[in-house]
Design a protein that fits this description.
It contains four helices and 14 strands. It has 267 residues and is of the alpha+beta class. The longest helix has 14 residues.
């Protein structure tokens, strides 16, 4: 069974669209440039992610690379805010594929290829945006998952706050931009708290999809994002921080506090 995540591009139109979506996104959209595509998420008032992806400016218009499985739900969530701003969202005809990069650059860097636009991503991969269909690369998705980057899929929407998915470590949360939906919960956790559950990397032969539960040591662990083919599954699984298991590896970077604050002392 082949299960490669499908990604699409949302195109936003309207003079006030960036200002409107800046109040909904974890990312500072008003500071964007053509040369950099920041990672970000849209959250509900409880700080749980409804959708995530990379923002990119194409022809001075805001676009969003995001999983196809969650795109309709995300667009429905954003519609009231876009309507107030007299803006609209539509699915772009651009084909979007994650491919392995022979010349990796910092995640979010935008470069122009021979016949495509490249947005570099974690795990030595990049998003290729073209006007004609391309072949997918499931190994590229394995690389990004092994690098600790997952995206909100339909099965995992409204389940995780950004810190549980390590978005604060991957450049997906701005703690200086001001208010947005879910900001109070996200900022409070970063200043004073600590995520009790975080993502771990699963590699094995069990077929898993986003939204499934992975059972281990008496815990039901939610699958956040995954790819599966006939040989192997690679997945990011939400686990209690205290859980130690040889089956679930920690992400390849240290989780540190991104803002000044005083977290409670563990007892």
């Amino acid at each position: 069974m082949l299960s490669e995540p499908t990604f699409r591009v949302i195109a936003f139109r309207g003079d006030q669209v960036i200002k409107a979506l800046n109040g909904q996104s974890t990312q500072a959209l008003t500071e964007m440039s053509d040369a950099f595509a920041p990672l970000g998420a849209f959250c509900d008032p409880k700080g749980r992610m409804i959708g995530s992806g990379r923002f990119i400016l194409l022809d001075d218009q805001l676009h969003f690379i995001t999983p196809g499985s969650q795109i309709e739900d995300l667009m429905a969530h954003l519609k009231p805010f876009l309507t107030l701003a007299r803006a609209e969202a539509m699915i772009s005809p651009l084909d979007c594929r994650l491919i392995r990069s022979d010349s990796p650059r910092d995640p979010g860097t935008v470069t122009q290829g021979a016949d495509d636009i490249l947005v570099h991503e974690h795990g030595h991969t990049c998003w290729a945006l073209r006007h004609h269909p391309m072949q997918g690369d499931i190994e590229a998705h394995r690389n990004r998952l092994n690098a600790g980057l997952g995206f909100v899929q339909a099965g995992s929407a409204r389940q995780l706050i950004p810190q549980q998915a390590h978005y604060q470590m991957l450049g997906g949360v701005s703690f200086t931009k001001g208010c947005y939906t879910g900001q109070e919960v996200i900022a409070r956790l970063e200043h004073l708290g600590q995520a009790k559950k975080t993502l771990r990397i699963y590699t094995g032969h069990q077929s898993l999809s986003a939204g499934d539960l992975y059972h281990i040591d008496g815990h039901d662990c939610l699958v956040f994002d995954a790819v599966t083919d006939t040989d192997m599954t690679t997945a990011l699984v939400l686990c209690p921080e205290a859980l130690e298991s040889e089956e679930l590896l920690r992400v390849p970077f240290e989780i540190t506090r991104q803002v000044a604050g005083e977290r409670p002392v563990k007892r």
